[in-house]
Amino acid sequence: MKPIINSFRFVLALMALISFTSCEKKVADNSMGTAEFSINALDELTSSKASFSDDSTVALSYQILLSVEDMNGNAVFTDKLLPLYVFGTGFISENVEIKTGEYKLTKFMVINPAGEIIYAAPVSGSPLAYLVTKPLPITFKIFPDQVTKVLPEVLPVGDHTPDQFGYASFGVQIIKPLDFWTVCTLDPGVLMPPVVITTARLTVLAPDGWHYTFKLEAAVNHLVIRGGYEFYTFILEKEGYLPQKLQFSAKELLATTKENPLVLKIPYFSTVYKIVLQPGPKKGKDAMISNLDSDKNFGEYKYFETTFLSEPILTVMRSNRSLISFDLDTLPKSAVIKKVILVLWYDLPIPFDTTYITNTYPSTGIEWYGAVLQQIVEPWEEHKVTWNTQPKSIEANQVYLSPFIRNSNVIELNVTSLFVSNTTTDQPDYPNYGMLFRLWPTERFPGFRFASSDFPEAGMRPKLIIHYTIN
User: Fold this and answer.
1) Who's near 316: CB < 8 A, 6+ residues apart?
2) Looking at the domain 177-270, which fold is it?
């Protein structure tokens, strides 16, 4: 049986936009027109409209998907979706602008409200191309002050596959949004004052990796996310509190309303406290050690550095390392450390060789040179330690520092792993006597130099920021 071939009337109505600001005008090159895609009513489309006759506020979500190229193969429209609106007994699409010139229609399809492609124009050379008289691409010209009609022939898709029409894929995925209502509260517990509505950050994650972060207001929030999943993971964050990880089903989200929103609670006991340590010369504990002065102590030294620099007098390379420790006695005994940040400043950066600048850690297997902060596991004294008596440090959980180029003289390093033991490994729970700053994996010119607690400018001395909770 001969397949039914449906013809769409593809109408491009040009409205010239000519600039008169110049005496020398190139109308053909610069004029713009309005492309209007109108479609004859099809039996399937007409019958579908009838189901909405009792609710005039609902618009049919039929769409055209098309691609247009110029004669040089440059894309003008790629997989452009145009919604179709009911207009009497027919349909009309949105208007789009297009320049005058010669073009090729390379893709043309119709998508129904269920997100299914129901009609498509076959491409020349495809298995179904023989059924139409003019397969794609169809060449057409747009002239100023004229209407160009393009009539692509389409076939019902039915059970046919995209390759039978000449498409690798239909190039579009219809995503159905899911909207829900939610509010964030600070839950004070049974014996505390009433619940307080608050602001927060909410990150919604889908099983396939899709995610988006919303800023929740201190009110009922109407959110729209990507639909099509059975469950979603929520990460609820608020400064000063521990993050909350929650999971909800799509059914739970769809059941919410403005009057009955999903309540996201931040427990009162999840409060995160912060202490900042930035001692000066008297209370600060740091020292530099050098291999060329292996028995000399540099307990009063204004730089916290690890360098490998030439020694002009001895014409050799000098290797310097640094040790630093902060007094944690001000932490409550029941404190549980959650995050530790070390902030370092430098006054004059050492010009590191740009061929070594990288943000890649050694775990990737790529050649890397930089520095590390290692946990010191033996006692040491600021005004006695030397290169020959330097305490033992361990590589486990060391923090890497890559060579960098920055437009500021401050850097922040997450050194939590040096203060919180990693219980997931077989490593013993070593004591913490501070941090050793050294080049890694080998000494490589020139290194890193920051201000120490003996630096004359107080605001540039090392700062340790500890985030903790109370057990």
Assistant:
1) 292, 310
2) Immunoglobulin-like (2.60.40)
